[in-house]
Design goal:
Elements: H1 21-33, E1 41-45, H2 52-65, E2 69-74, H3 79-90, E3 101-106, E4 113-117, H4 125-139, E5 143-148, H5 155-169, E6 174-180, H6 182-189, E7 201-204, H7 210-223, E8 227-228, H8 230-240, H9 244-257, E9 262-263, H10 265-289, H11 293-302, E10 309-310, H12 311-318, H13 322-334, E11 338-342, E12 345-348, H14 353-359
Parallel strand pairs: 1-6, 1-7, 2-5, 5-6, 8-9
Antiparallel strand pairs: 3-4, 10-12, 11-12
Length: about 350
């Protein structure tokens, strides 16, 4: 019985992480370099399935091994209290523990002890973080914040990022890594209260190359003691489009289809088909939910093309002008759903989306 080595769980670091080493090294060098290094404020962008959450977690783990305190939250209501709680948890062994009570007197023959419960100041999140930073500074320990799924529609995220700018001005030993969908990151840059983020390092998470994807899949399969047929490997690589999460998902289903020592082409085909249901619910449904009706019509018009689409063809199919098509093409590029691949040419960012859309009733 072979244990499946693939881990198609969002945010879960796979056994083999490839294609992101340069990004990780850049940030870690920034942490080591000291206050003022620009890598200490980095924003990762990419479509769903590109590995943003895993990358944040990987860097946070590496930072902790270097002696940093790392706290992570998604950009949601309540994130500020969550940051405060996580700081307490991660600094519990470093910072002095708070007394819950103190002795205020002794009684007579019964040797009774009178104690008084100490009421600690209920500091707000900002004062709490600043107090923690003061204590960490004495120990030369840095504090890394990671925020996932950034969204300008979350007031608490805007409030925190605005405050973080003060930490930078004060030359605090801090770093901030953020990750989000391309359009959400662009919307965040429009908020004047955090305009300084426009000068932050932006790193786009491109799909893995075919050679990188092939190496990840092959090595992951071999961790189990199995092998994969070269033709089956090529089929799986082509279906993933180089997206880290899709590599894990299709790899997982393909692995489960096999009951022999070598994964075959038939196993790969069955695994890819089995992946469609999960891909629809995990990636396609959430992507389509955020799109307008015209966005959806645009994508359905692209399904007819084999590899890439032309603006003129989409305009003809929809019965609109090329300029009109250009407006929606820009929108979909900003949202990370389609990708330009040359003058006037564009394709689905996630290649397998074409065949999934062809099967869906939208």
């Amino acid at each position: 019985m072979y244990k499946n080595p693939f881990t198609p769980v969002f945010g879960n670091e796979p056994p083999i992480l490839a294609g992101r080493n340069n990004l990780i090294d850049d940030v870690l060098r920034g942490l080591d370099a000291g206050v003022g290094d620009p890598n200490r404020i980095t924003i990762f962008t990419g479509p769903r399935g590109s590995g943003k959450t895993v990358l944040l977690a990987k860097i946070a783990n590496e930072a902790q091994e270097r002696g940093w305190i790392a706290v992570h939250v998604p950009a949601v209501t309540g994130m500020l209290e969550s940051l405060k709680d996580q700081i307490d948890i991660h600094t519990a062994e470093l910072l002095p523990r708070k007394q819950k009570s103190q002795m205020t007197g002794l009684q007579g023959a019964g040797f009774g002890i009178t104690r008084e419960i100490i009421k600690h100041d209920n500091l707000g999140w900002r004062a709490h973080i600043e107090k923690t930073l003061n204590l960490l500074e004495e120990m030369n320990v840095g504090l890394l914040f990671t925020i996932d799924e950034v969204s300008a529609s979350v007031p608490e995220m805007i409030e925190f990022v605005s405050t973080f700018q003060v930490y930078i001005m004060e030359k605090r030993n801090v770093a901030l890594l953020m990750a989000g969908l391309p359009d959400k990151v662009l919307q965040m840059f429009q908020d004047d209260s955090i305009s300084f983020l426009r000068r932050a390092f932006r790193r786009k998470l491109d799909p893995l190359s075919n050679s990188e994807a092939r190496a990840v899949i092959k090595k992951t399969v071999e961790l189990s003691g199995r092998e994969i047929d070269q033709a089956a490997l090529a089929l799986v690589v082509d279906s993933t489009g180089g997206f880290p999460f899709i590599i894990q998902l299709i790899g997982y289903h393909t692995f489960n289809q096999s009951d022999s020592d070598v994964i075959s082409v038939a196993d790969a085909k069955s695994g890819i088909d089995s992946s469609y249901v999960d891909l629809e619910s995990m990636i396609l449904d959430s992507t389509m939910y955020s799109l307008s009706e015209m966005d959806k019509k645009f994508l359905l018009a692209m399904v007819e093309d084999e590899k890439y689409s032309l603006a003129s063809d989409i305009a003809r199919r929809l019965g609109v002008s090329v300029n009109y098509v250009g407006t929606y093409r820009r929108r979909l590029v900003e949202q990370g759903v389609i990708t330009p691949i040359g003058r006037g040419k564009f394709s689905f960012t996630i290649p397998i989306m074409r065949s999934m859309l062809a099967k869906m009733d939208i």
